[in-house]
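User: Arminomycin 4-O-methyltransferase/SAM-dependent hydroxylase. Structure?
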Amino acid sequence: MVSAEAARQSMRELDVLLRLGSLHTPMAVRVAATLRLVDHINAGHDSPAKLAKVTGTNANALLRIVRHLVAVGLLRETGPDQLEPTTTGRLLADDHPAQQRAWFDLTNAVARADLAFVRLLDAVRTGRPTYESIYGQPFYDDLAANPELAKSFDTLMACDQDLAYDAPAAAYDWSNAKHVLDVGGGIGGFLAAIAKIAPHVRGTLLELPLVSERGAEHFRTAGLDDRMNTVAADFFEPLPVKADVIVLSFVLLNWSDDEARRILRRCADALEPGGRIVVLERDDLAEDASNEKFTILDMRMLVFLGGRLRTRDEWSTFACSAGLTVESAEKVASPSVPFDLSLLVLAPNGEKA
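Assistant: Predicted structure:
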């Protein structure tokens, strides 16, 4: 006979499994973010009926979503038909300093891409990303074809990564650098951070044409266009610019080993003698790849792009396969962001520090 305590423990374990396996709450959170429910509540639309009216949704259906958000602790009832966000729920306000709402908004690039996880089994069976099977074309091609989607992606990346750049920029010694080439660096957030602490450095941002234009505008707005310029190019082709330091910030995790190796080799070919490649990535120095932040992003890279994160041991082997040596690798503490950062310095094989 099963004891009462054993039965209770079994039920607790079942509850954990049901929470882990449920798609209900993740989708309800995304609906709340997309409809901006917390913003509307804060603006006085604090009942299910008022929320349905202001969002143009079905009142009965939205009521059921709201009940679930109360049940899981994102909203609470303060009176009959009166709602307010909890501390956690306030994270879904558009003006919250953590800037998380947009990450769950289904009209934005990342939350929309997350829907490709419904075909995770296909990715596991084939090793290929599933984004294309959902949306008809690869992730970056989809962005190129949808300017508003691309804009949402750039905004998310700029918000997330700009917070992350100051600490790694300060972690590297730029005193001997003259020209820094930022390959695939979005609108140039890392270069801008480098420019702040290394006023002697000239910089070039290499990106695809549309992103390169936005980068040029970013530098003009920041008053850096006298030292920072942009070049439109494809980093899978020979790079048209040489530099003594080439940076790759949040780039290589987007690509498979074969593709990332090609990018590294192009960068190595564009180094001036004695030059170095500086790689900034997320979570890629985990010793055992068992922490949840590592595994979540690693699965996203698989499903979205066919990319991957790499552990410390994997980096050593991978760099060597591209004709490079990991000269140094360190964690970088950045109190402004909720994820780990790592800074790797790569040197061509055979070169001494």
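The radius of gyration is 23 Å. The chain is about 50% helix and 15% strand.
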